[in-house]
Prior knowledge:
This protein is α+β, with helices and mostly antiparallel strands. It contains ten helices and eight strands.
Amino acid sequence: xxxxxxxxxxxxxxxxxxxxxxxxxxxxxxxxxxxxxxxxxxxxxxxxxxxxxxxxxxxxxxxxxxxxxxxxxxxxxxxxxxxxxxxxxxxxxxxxxxxxxxxxxxxxxxxxxxxxxxxxxxxxxxxxxxxxxxxxxxxxxxxxxxxxxxxxxxxxxxxxxxxxxxxxxxxxxxxxxxxxxxxxxxxxxxxxxxxxxxxxxxxxxxxxxxxxxxxxxxxxxxxxxxxxxxxxxxxxxxxxxxxxxxxxxxxxxxxxxxxxxxx
Length: 263
């Protein structure tokens, strides 16, 4: 057994094909239009929003005589009026590592606007179990005794996996289909708190919803910890899309509340 801490990796994001965007801008007669967005994600949201109203420049739409010229103010208005559909165009790709299956069981409840790929315990045989220690164990008056007890039980289940593998002689099994069946059966006696890895792709609208839900003080501790890390990463990388987020620390963990923005 080894102790772990959840980790967040942002491995991909929507990219703009500038040549094709240029052709579109030529098509609508605004070839001179540019954006001061700090990322392609923020730029693509702006483009999708502006095409809805033909608001790339005053007069392109006869009803529009004034526009917001900068990406930050444009996206602030999108956020304020909750024009969520244009925010859906930006997709982010995360790998969340050393998270527990307690965490992933909660994460997969958020199904809209996401794609999920999780480490498969039908194929990945358990040997050295990773385990994240909740703070209620670490901070309890009897913490040393409790943590020793928990570690002992996780190590027991780890030995159980190793000994069962030896009984099944899985290491010498040549038929991978049989090996897979053994591995699949053995996972049934693994703790739900064991560390795993999940790939999670999400559009920005859904991501904002999940951050707001899962950093809330009423959420489970591990998912609050993970989405606090997610929020910190995206707020730094995409400041205009998360400019309404206000950080508070509650029970030692981040909580992101939204505020109205000046536009």
